Structure to design on (432 residues):
């Protein structure tokens, strides 16, 4: 059984002022590759944390450096073969060896201020679904003593902080108002979550074998799994060097690498704004399940009217109707649909003509899972004709045994079930 508590929607603010009964056991996983000086500075900073040393486990994972890094006594060193950029695999390796209740991921060149671990661990220790990101600031720390207090050295050598990220945190009230695309504002170099939730979501996707993207893919999966996103603004870690926008600006392959990352992400994050406008990807954003239909004609009218309202959806129909829809790749007789789990599932127990509720359908699909709204019912609550359910609501329900999101009911938006003779010709011709 999971320990801790849940909150409605993304309301981490309801935990303001609360502290764990005792400091949680924290495992810090530091990813490293050929950055000895930077690693020395980060480990020195981790040795100055206000979080109790006896409740802190330090694990350095080396991604195949030609020479193993040096780490002080008490720091565990793990290594993996040099097979290219494999920070996803390195983080997974560190997590698999960790024993703490809270996992905190850092990069070797990201140096935490003294209060960082205590502030990052608070929410995951209270609410196991919390996924938090610290404030990553930037400074030119090269040449400074590795034991120089970063809370002083960082501001003295500060570099520009990404304005788009600062704006995102401000506009979302530190992610309190997170939505389906807020995964872009959580970065793996300054990320923390409970060990229970990491195991539930699964590790970082090791298909990502170039710089960037593996953290966004994981965070989006976490969002679908019911995560509570929070930006902990006073948990500051200093990255040694500029943000990506200030690096390698003269490299002609720089943009191509970013495009390759984006293309890979489109296969994993099919939400609007991250997928193509016309092209389909392997991931399914909205999945519709048709439970039954009295005839092939009724199934046709139902599925056609649903896809007219939600053309991006994938529809699962009973196997007996598979041949009717063989020409449309959006229609399948298999369930579940391919991973990752759909952001929204639309359940239609019995075939209905959905064009009469198309506006409500579109609105529900775009709003469930955001804020405190988890589900929308079209029709009477005891037997809705259509149920729109967010992945986040389903995940929380499975964890806690009860709804942690609100359900909105439209009892009068009750499309009539179709009978065996739905007047197919009239439907297609527009006179019925």
């Amino acid at each position: 059984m999971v320990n801790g508590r849940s909150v409605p929607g993304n309301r981490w603010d309801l935990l303001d002022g609360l502290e764990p009964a005792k400091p949680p056991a924290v495992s810090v996983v530091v990813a490293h590759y050929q950055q000895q000086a930077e690693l020395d500075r980060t480990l020195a900073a981790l040795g100055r944390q206000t979080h109790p040393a006896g409740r802190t486990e330090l694990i350095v994972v080396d991604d195949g450096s030609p020479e193993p890094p040096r780490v002080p006594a008490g720091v565990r060193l793990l290594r993996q073969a040099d097979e290219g950029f494999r920070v996803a695999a390195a983080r997974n390796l560190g997590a698999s060896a960790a024993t703490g209740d809270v996992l905190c991921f850092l990069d070797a060149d990201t140096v935490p201020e003294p209060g960082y671990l205590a502030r990052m661990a608070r929410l995951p220790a209270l609410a196991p679904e919390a996924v938090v990101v610290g404030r990553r600031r930037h400074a030119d720390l090269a040449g400074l003593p590795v034991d120089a207090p970063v809370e002083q050295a960082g501001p003295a050598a500060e570099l520009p902080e990404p304005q788009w990220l600062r704006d995102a945190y401000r506009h979302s009230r530190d992610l309190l108002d997170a939505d389906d695309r807020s995964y872009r504002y959580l970065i793996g170099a300054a990320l923390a979550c409970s060990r229970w939730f990491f195991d539930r979501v699964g590790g970082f996707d090791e298909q990502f074998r170039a710089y960037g993207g593996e953290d966004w893919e994981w965070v989006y999966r976490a969002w679908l799994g019911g995560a509570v996103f929070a930006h902990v603004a006073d948990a500051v870690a200093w990255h040694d060097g500029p943000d990506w926008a200030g690096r390698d600006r003269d490299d002609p392959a720089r943009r191509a690498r970013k495009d390759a990352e984006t293309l890979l992400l489109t296969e994993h994050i099919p939400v609007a704004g991250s997928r193509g406008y016309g092209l389909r990807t392997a991931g399914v954003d909205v999945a519709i399940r048709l439970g039954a239909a009295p005839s092939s004609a009724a199934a046709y009218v139902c599925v056609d009217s649903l896809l007219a309202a939600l053309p991006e959806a994938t529809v699962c129909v009973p196997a007996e109707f598979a041949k009717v829809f063989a020409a449309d790749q959006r229609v399948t007789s298999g369930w579940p649909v391919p991973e990752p789990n759909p952001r929204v599932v639309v359940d239609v127990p019995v075939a209905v003509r959905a064009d009469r509720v198309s506006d409500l359908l579109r609105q529900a699909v775009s709003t469930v899972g955001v804020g405190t709204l988890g589900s929308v019912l079209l029709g009477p609550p005891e037997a809705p004709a259509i149920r729109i359910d967010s992945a986040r609501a389903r995940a929380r329900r499975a964890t806690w045994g009860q709804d942690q999101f609100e359900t909105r009911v439209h009892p009068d938006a009750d499309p009539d079930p179709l009978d065996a003779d739905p007047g197919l010709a009239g439907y297609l011709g527009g006179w019925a």
Summary: The chain has a mean pLDDT of 93. The chain has two domains: 12-268, 286-429. Residues 27 and 192 are 10 Å apart (CA to CA).
